[in-house]
């Protein structure tokens, strides 16, 4: 199945690939909600579509101990047998958001 058929790209703004700052965060909220995913991006200063697309793993930051991450980590992860596991909804929201953006990027490249 073609991934571009799975995502309704018409609901993305035409300038979605150039969004920065507040416009980018508003888009994230509209797609993924204002919960932990938004907080994960914000604390890392991932404040544009391009920065998000260039980030391999937005959850990598949680490998480090930092008091600044405790609250977000508790909202985003389960602790199972001493290991932290990203909550499925957050991981799926992240995948949906990035796949939608990559699909839009590919569509624009194909039409260019």
Describe, in short, the structure shown.
With 112 residues, the chain is mainly alpha-helical. It contains five helices and two strands.
Outline the structure in words:
It is built from 5 helices and 2 strands, in the order H-H-H-H-E-E-H. By secondary structure, the protein is mainly alpha-helical. It has one domain. The protein has a two-stranded antiparallel sheet with strand order 1-2. Mean pLDDT is 89; it is low at 1-5.
Q: Strand order within the widest sheet?
A: 1-2
How confident is the prediction overall: mean pLDDT?
Answer: 89
Low-confidence spans: pLDDT under 50, at least 5 residues?
A: 1-5
Structural class, judged by helices and strands? mainly alpha
Tell me roughly what share of residues is in helical segments: 40-55%
List the total number of helices: 5
Radius of gyration: 15 Å
Percent of residues in beta strands = 5-15%
List SSEs in N-to-C order: HHHHEEH
Helices, strands, pairings?
Blueprint: H1 21-32, H2 36-43, H3 49-54, H4 70-76, E1 77-80, E2 83-86, H5 88-111
Antiparallel strand pairs: 1-2
What distinguishing features does this structure have?
112 residues, mainly alpha, two-stranded antiparallel ribbon, 5 helices, disordered N terminus
């Amino acid at each position: 199945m073609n991934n571009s058929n799975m995502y309704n790209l018409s609901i993305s703004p035409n300038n979605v690939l150039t969004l920065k700052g507040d416009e980018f965060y508003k888009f994230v909220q509209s797609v993924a909600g204002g919960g932990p995913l938004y907080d994960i991006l914000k604390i890392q200063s991932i404040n544009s579509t391009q920065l998000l697309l260039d980030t391999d793993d937005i959850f990598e930051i949680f490998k480090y101990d930092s008091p600044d991450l405790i609250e977000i980590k508790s909202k985003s992860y389960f602790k199972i047998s001493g290991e932290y596991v990203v909550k499925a909804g957050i991981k799926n929201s992240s995948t949906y958001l990035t796949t939608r953006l990559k699909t839009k990027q590919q569509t624009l490249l194909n039409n260019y």
